[in-house]
Design goal:
Blueprint (H helix, E strand, L loop, with lengths): L10 E8 L2 E9 L21 E3 L1 E2 L8 H8 L4 E7 L9 H12 L2 E6 L2 E8 L8 E8 L2 H10 L3 E5 L6 E4 L1 H15 L6 H27 L1 E4 L2 E4 L1 E8 L5 E10 L5 E5 L8 E6 L3 H8 L8 E7 L3 H11 L11 H4 E3 L8 H4 L10 E5 L13 E3 L19 H28 L17 H6 L30
Parallel strand pairs: 1-3, 9-17, 9-19, 17-18, 19-20
Antiparallel strand pairs: 1-2, 2-5, 4-6, 5-8, 6-7, 7-8, 10-16, 11-12, 13-14, 14-15, 15-16
Amino acid sequence: MAALVAGDGVVSSLPLFEGEVFLGDVDVFLPPGSPSSGMESQHPVFPGRKIQISHRSPASDRCPPLSVLQVISAYSVRCKLRAKKLDLHPRSPMGKLHSSCLNERRTAVVEAGAEELHLVAMESKLKGVPCFWCWSAQTGLYEACLEMLNQRCLALVFDLDETLVLSNNKETFENRMEKITSDLKNSELDATTEVALCNELYKVCEDSELLKDFTKTGTITLNHEIVRSQHEEGMLHKPDGVQQLIVRPVIRIPGRNAVLTRIKPMVPEHSCFINIRPGWDDLKSYLTTTIGRRRYKVYVCTMAGRDYALEAWRLLDPEGSLIGSEEISQRLICVKPDSKKSLERVFQESLCHPNLAMVIDDRMDVWDERDKRRVHILPPYNPSFAPEDKGSHDLSVLQIVKIVTSNVRGEFFSYFDDNLLKIVNELMYENSVLDLPDSPDVGDYLQRKSNKIVRHNDSPISPMDTSGGEVESGKTN
């Protein structure tokens, strides 16, 4: 027995059930240093002094359970289980559980409050003996991340204002014009800056007049032609889950990726002018593959009000290809301006692990310290000053985002497939937890200096075209 459980400590014996069906007794091997559990004391892993499986996890197409658990709950093995009788028939209830979980890449799940314990079927040097590793994870997280990893999908969290859109109302237009006018009074301005400010002021004034006309009449005049608003329908998704139909007057300005809309349809003063960042449609099409499989699961985290955020996102994703109507209330998160954004808050309802997540924002300071390493910063979007929105190497800012997200995803799954899966598939029951490989983390690939991703300066471009193909052997397309 010592050879089988080398490195493991305290041993106890508990009955194993699936639902109400008794499968047999198992020996429970706790890690070294674990407290013993006499007959009168509470068991450190199974307080009820029995192991009761509530359900089995979904079958996995590509990922063995250990690979998923190491990503979402690294090294969280609570104990090891081994059938007490060493001569169990393969068709015994416990033998069938073990072979089914092993062949279908499932886990047997034991509910334990805010966490769940996953019994992972393991091959053993002692043939024919059902053996399991017992691994803890946040309730529901395994199933959510299993689907993403099987699809080779990561999470992408977008900010809205000055990241994907720039929105103005009457007040913000006036403030911007006042600021530019004040800057122009500076006697030390060089000629180039003065010309740039004058051009910006002209464009801001022009757009402000369009907003005034839309607010007063629901129309604008372009090239001596009147453009009338059209009614567009959207769903208002309240925090309680109730959906309410909203019909708004909207003008999509011809020849520009800009929209005039009204957040509260019956209140003209709630009209706003929304510019959509160049390259958004191309980036959006990359995030889902041609066969409809997601490369990234998209979330939105903004400090804007919810009514405005829902309308801005509707304009960005009108067909719901990135976030379906049934999921928008869980995946569009509004944070109070005096609070910090955090991935913990973003993933509160639609579960995901931060290791799988990347953030696109124009500000780092609004994010929780733990999440800053996963934030890719963009220059704030200002179409009046820089309408073409160019970054380095004459690429648009969102073209660069496309390359960054493609490279990060490619490197994450290159490690996952070529290292993590290879090692995990060779592990046996007798191995130590320390034999597990390191867990991949999106933040590592985003921050690693040796990673040749494009940034918004003059750093090198990745050896990848901008059409969305990854630098790998077709595994994550």
